[in-house]
Input
Amino acid sequence: MASFPLNPWFIACLSRELKRARPMAVEAEDRFLVLFRDSADTPIVLEDRCAHRNVPLSLGRVRKGRLQCAYHGWTYGSDGSVVEIPALAERPDPVPGFRVKKFHAEDQDGFIWVTLEQSRPTVSPPRFPYFKEKGWTSFVMKTRFQAPIEACLENFLDCPHAAFLHRYWFRSPTAKAVKATVRTLPDGAEAEFSEEPREKSLVWWLLAPMQGGMRHIDRFIAPRTSRVDYAFQNGMHYVITSSCTGLPGGETQVYTVITFRLGWLGPVVKLFFEPLSRRIIGQDVEMLGAQQRNLRRFSGARFSSSRADLLGRHIVAWRQALERGELPPSAGQQYDVDIRL
Output
């Protein structure tokens, strides 16, 4: 596998979901994992299979920061080694020769991050921009999509669909000409928009000035992240960042952090901005679910793309290269596309 400037961490669950009293089963990125907290409250991630008779360790319980199998009581320490076999007359700790595979985990910013790398990466889990910083207001959404990661990422970074699927909520078709500048980056690609229409939209009517400049950039950060920035001349700034975790059956768990700078109005705006955002992302869930059901009806995809599909091909190219162990698309390219929104 070639070396890529990518972050190998993914989100397994929210921190609050992982209790100290019981283990948690997680199926993610083609792995069956069990998570629990040790006596220091540190998240531990093991393969969800007992070394003895292969039953799920997630059926067990946590005793004094160690994970005990529900079948014969074999007990595992934080490094995945067996530290106790209750049926043995002599009980060495640890028991030589028995262990399960351990993965690396970190509890950061309210998320349990996991990497499947054999050694702990030199880079820390990524951080959501401005999350919990002074002067910024944030909220988190956890959303399950019945669609693969590629479809979710393209949807989050696709302006034209918003004018129709989210009509009057987020955008509406105005047929105004907009120049989009697409750039390929060392870790993905981005599209920047100029003179973008903001009328006929509840979100912009409520949350942004209708006059003055706005800088809008949609960014794909390989392999699993989308970031959308709206920055206004008056200092207002909205950032929508989504991290995608692959689930069984081609589904995706999406962890979205919406962070915005509105000064003292932030907490007040959050009261209606959060339910509005959940309404909008719910429309995406329904549409991508309908898309995937139709793909099954017709036994596969026959997609067509135009130049207005700005980042979709870059997302697919990056993820296919990573899957095949090939070099990713080259950085440094830039081109303009005229679209209508």
Summary: The first helix runs from residue 149 to 156. The chain has a mean pLDDT of 92. The longest strand covers residues 237-247.
